[in-house]
Amino acid sequence: MPTIDDHRATVAALVAPALDALRRNGLEERLVDDLVDDAGAGAGHRVLGRAVATPIDLPPFDNSQMDGFALRSTDAGVRLRVGRPIPAGVVRRSLAVGEAAPIMTGAPIPDGADVVVPVEAFGVRFPAALDLPELTAPVGLVPGTFVRTRGSDLPAGGVLAPAGAPVTPALLGVLAAAGVERAGLVRRPRVLVVSTGSELAAPEPATPSPATPTPATPGPGMPSGSASTIGDANGTSLRAALAEVGAATRAVRVPDDVDGFLGAVTDAADGWADLVLTTGGISMGAYEVVREALEPRGLVVTSVAMQPGGPQATGTVVLGDSTLPVIAFPGNPVSALVSFEVFLRPLFAAHAGMPSDRPSMTLPAADAAPSPAGKHQVRRGTVRDGRVSFVGGASSHLLAHYADATHLVHVPLGVDRVEPGDPLTVWSIR
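and the corresponding structure tokens:
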């Protein structure tokens, strides 16, 4: 039975080439203002597809770092008349001989001045300092003091950020400061999320969002209004999880019918998707639609030494005119989310310029619990007073308990029971 590390390597080998191809060839031009809107909508996590250079010096002119007086350093100890004030945003002017010019933070340094003395050095504050007729320049003035020189942040032509840099708030700010209106980004990975099962309720019409720019569509023959139907937890949670790491998604829900599955998935994926992610239909039942439809086309189903999330499948499959990597997770909702955290999230997070690993630490267990010795168990938990407590049981349908948890708790292979005080690795998930 493959270990978690074995299957992580398999998934990475399958998915990494598609993500690498996007970094090489998936350039997308975007307005900087639109990227601000994306970030505000929770749809950030982008990386530059090409380097961005500043077209101007940053800062574009010498300016004052302080509210104070612009002087010549050679006038140290000299009595000077107070001239016209220089607020931010005015045209640069020259400093007259024998003058000290009141200057505000960010205002252009007048020609001839080479130092700014903070207003508080004269025992007065603005705006009262504007009424001073004269002042005596301090002794020991050093040229350049409190002067932000032109190009000191970055000269014109300098690289603001290299290709592959994450688009952070600071980067967006410096692009705006440099007057850069457009940036070339690596296109978001497009993931078709396929929820299987004739028990899934038909969805309401979906509204596109910046993170998921295409609407969810129901598959053919989906039941609606039956007492035996359930909501699509997997499709909803996985699309949200993918959006957190910069992916765009499209969703289909399909019944346990091979022809209906192949038709719906091919129509949605062909020419659009970079990856197909399915849930359910890969176990040992009589209606395992993903297995029946895709095993003959190259999907390899295996059982990983992990609980929850043991059944897993990977492969490269031809769908219409597209040859696509397919990742198949189990259908129980906790199994699907844990599988995403363990196998897919690290790859997409790294592609989006985020840390690939969740914050991790080793903490003592607060509780006792059994664990299957032949499997790596991933439990849900919370951390209090430096100890980790399990939330809910180990069963893979306990999604409400997962939603209440703040950490994933790892019980390694070979451990058949956790006792209070045993050290456990925990991942912070929120």
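(Above: one complete record from the training split.) Residues 407 and 428 are 5 Å apart (CA to CA).
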